[in-house]
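quick one
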Amino acid sequence: MNLTNKTAVIVGGSQGIGRALAEGLLHEGANVVVASRTQETVEKTAQEIGATPFVVDVRDEQGLRDLASFTIDKFGAIDLWVNSAGLFKKFPKGDLLDMDRAHEMFDVNFFGAVLGSRTALLNMEDGAVVNILSSAALDARRSVGAKLYAASKWALRGYVDALRSENEDSSVQILSVYPGGTKSHLHDEALPAEFPNFMEPEYVVGKIIANLQLEQPEQDLIIKRPNI
Ligand SMILES: NC(=O)c1ccc[n+]([C@@H]2O[C@H](COP(=O)([O-])OP(=O)(O)OC[C@H]3O[C@@H](n4cnc5c(N)ncnc54)[C@H](OP(=O)(O)O)[C@@H]3O)[C@@H](O)[C@H]2O)c1
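structure w/ NAP:
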């Protein structure tokens, strides 16, 4: 895909991989709407990088439909929709499982991307829907202490694989990205020991953009840390 003058929506675009992707796409000449839940952060990011802000909670399907309508009204079409919103939570072994926290993570990581994908497919004629999964959805054995996070991403992998088969004849491509550890605020709650060796978001984004620019992008893009 030639990204110049294309229009991208990035849900979870205020920080981390989403923000770096927004910057990369703007650099390629795309129009970018960055969307996330926290008004202050999303507006600050949009102003800093020259994107258009939109406040939405990814668990709110009507809010996502409003985001799609807003983008089409402003730019004419949506060519790229990225589901990057995510949470990473750990759960101590001995305690009763905090179901509110567990549901919140599943609602954002799994249902958020489900709702985003549904909304995108209803509002796009061609282009690509990109879901940011995780290397944890390829091999959960490294997800020690993060079983529920890994499970939320495995669930999403199942959904996206089936969605892709269902939409085989569509002009909209359904792409998955599986990054390894990346430096971002995702890990603020429980900083892993190997965090200093994690990838920079810009490195991950370089791989995503190069893939999007291919005539036939890889459907399952695995981005490994170069230092392991
Ligand atoms: N960092 C890693 O090591 C890594 C590795 C593999 C995969 N991933 C995946 O990559 C994606 C992006 O992660 P990241 O590292 O960029 O994390 P991040 O820096 O923490 O950014 C997460 C983004 O998600 C948004 N978000 C969270 N809950 C939301 C909600 N309910 N509604 C709307 N937006 C919401 C945040 O916005 P607010 O601040 O407004 O909430 C923020 O923009 C996630 O799906 C994550 O699982 C990350």
